[in-house]
Write a structure and sequence with these properties.
The complex is a heterodimer. Chain A is mainly α. Chain A has a single domain, classed as MetI-like (MetI-like fold), CATH 1.10.3720. In chain A, helix 2 packs parallel to helix 9 and helix 8 runs antiparallel to helix 9. Chain B has ten helices and no strands. Chain B is elongated. The longest helix of chain B has 41 residues. Chain B is an all-alpha fold. The chains are: A mainly alpha, B mainly alpha.
Chain lengths: 227, 221
Amino acid sequence: MTGMERFLNTFFNPAMMRAHAPAVIDGVWVTLWIAIAVVIAGVAVGLLLACLRTYANKPLNFFIICFADIFRALPPLVLILLIYFGLPSAGIRLSGPMVLFIVLALTLAAFAEEIFWAGFASVEKGQWEAGIATGLGFTGTLIHVALPQAVRLATPPLVNRVLAITKMTALGSVIGVSEILSAAMSAQSFSGSATPLTLAAIAYLVIFLPFVFVARFLESRQSWKGR
Amino acid sequence: MDVIFDQFFNLDIMRQALPLLLSGLWMTAKLCAAVILLGLVGGLFVALANLSPRLWLKIPAIIFIDIFRALPPLVLLIFLYSGLPFAGIQISPFAAVALAFFLNNSSYYAEVYRAGILSVAKGQWEAAASTGLTKSQTLISIILPQAVRNVLPDLLSNTIEVVKLTSLASVVSLSELLFNANMARSITYNASPLVLAALIYLVLLWPLVRLVSRFQRRLAA
């Protein structure tokens, strides 16, 4: 066998691909479900916290800032292990997918809060004053004047962050969530072939490459506007 | 309440686990030094290739960046660590982590550098050329210092992500901070070592996270 044949046989064995594609595809659905739940919950909580922060309530803002800082500073895998292996001794037993969802959603919420807050901070003070002067009230100005601008500014960095955090669903393999990577790893140890790992890599590329392109497009559009 | 203190903030267990965690922290520091350095250098070359007018440099650079932005770092790490031995290539955990994160970080750093280089006005290239500087002299002494200054917050926030990423090395049994903390947890049946590891990460990274927020506020103002 030549080197090339051996390489192809190790990583692109067609029989292995056919045999293990169904397991990896099952993993794709698990990854997608968790990723979608994480994105919805994380962005919603982050946006809510950023809106609450505009009310400038000191004790509340202290709590929001601490939350955002801690979840931006801690590696998600530390939290995953802590909750999955630690909490049961306090009588709280959560399933693997639940732990993965909670940790990733909170991490995304922390980053989303900072990104939306930067958007709110860039809205000029005069616009707030004008909105309140026309009788919209603070909440009305927040929703109708500040929010649309903040969301537009936040979109490109938010897409990048969402991408980085949804990719972390692969961490679920450490706590036995049957997503793409763990499906591929068990197929690999079962079959003694590296081909299932190639399948996993292909599955991730199929899912995430479109979002990489979207992120690239949004960034280039914004940098053109800036000029 | 007692259960919480006993299981999560048990000072006795933390004291016993501390030497193990500190030796893990040393490994984490070595890993960080390796992957940050490799990523900063690799990213610069990828960014320069990406900005090159030569298509045979530009297109591979774009493909490289997009693929490694789409692949989760853990998938890359597992692929290298448990896939390569099947092809007859033995690789140590440290080398697997360094290689996986070199590929992943280079693509992220490359995007930061690219934004930085593009933020320097084009006239500076022309002015430098007219004073007789070569292209590489212009790049090194005129463009890069300004480019790096302009994207310093992004470089810093990316570096924080790289430090957090090194915790994934625990999955391939490299005895860094998280691996040692988790081992101490499984020996003592107590989560306090993991809490201690989380506190160590917080102490190290919180000041940097604050710094990034402050930078961003100044740019917005």
